[in-house]
Design a protein that fits this description.
The chain is mainly alpha-helical and 220 residues long. The chain has eleven helices and no strands.
């Protein structure tokens, strides 16, 4: 009798592949290519994944789980919650710039529309969840009275631009500096002056360091 497949083993293999899939898409990948990226033999890969669709299902589930983890933390609405959740939302917004690429979404829509719809649905749910958070902050007098839809649009457009290689090279800056500046920009934009103390910047420094390392590895 075969031993059951451990979910953590599948996840480890998928994480070896996920950067390439997200950056370049997956339509061109054969199962031999996937095994190579996972750094295992074809036979070993088939112990964990029955098909290319099974692999892509795993990739999408990793992204979906990451998005939904943030929602699970939304259970406390005292003022300190807004500073913490702002930082968590910032971290996730930056990470999703790396995870949700045009190459990935186009390939999913063309090859696996069901997986595309699952991911699209979770992203739409995240958007509505974020809008409720911003509206609640305004209602409680913590956030400035700005259009919350503009905040999401700003993340979608501006974050993609300032984290691009073209932007970094043209402005002679680093991803770490850009993320730090964008974080400060969003904090000052969102929180009222007398509520800035709710945000502990010491908590974000290791996060930005980690995000910067991930971006730099992806560019190598």
């Amino acid at each position: 009798m075969n031993a059951p497949v451990r979910p953590d083993a599948r996840t480890k293999l998928l994480k070896k592949l996920i950067v390439s899939v997200i950056r370049d898409g997956f339509q061109h990948l054969r199962m031999d290519d996937i095994a190579k990226y996972m750094d295992v033999s074809r036979a070993t890969m088939y112990k964990y994944f029955s098909s290319k669709e099974d692999v892509m299902d795993g990739v999408v589930r990793i992204i979906v789980d990451y998005i939904e983890r943030l929602e699970e933390r939304n259970h406390n609405e005292d003022e300190s919650y807004f500073g913490v959740w702002f930082q968590q939302l910032f971290e996730q917004s930056v990470s999703l710039v790396e995870y949700i690429t045009d190459a990935l979404m186009k390939d999913l829509q063309a090859a696996y529309p069901d997986l595309y719809n699952i991911l699209k649905g979770v992203l739409q749910k995240r958007e509505q969840h974020s809008l409720r958070f911003y509206r609640l902050g305004k209602d409680k007098g913590i956030f400035n009275a700005i259009n919350e839809k503009f905040i999401l649009l700003q993340d979608d457009l501006l974050l993609h631009e300032i984290t691009s290689v073209k932007y970094l090279l043209y402005n002679h800056t680093t991803i770490k500096e850009v993320l730090h500046d964008y974080y400060q920009f969003k904090k000052m934009q969102l929180f009222k002056a007398d509520k800035l103390s709710l945000v502990d910047d010491a908590n974000i420094n290791p996060v930005i360091e980690q995000l910067s390392e991930k971006f730099n590895r992806a560019l190598m």
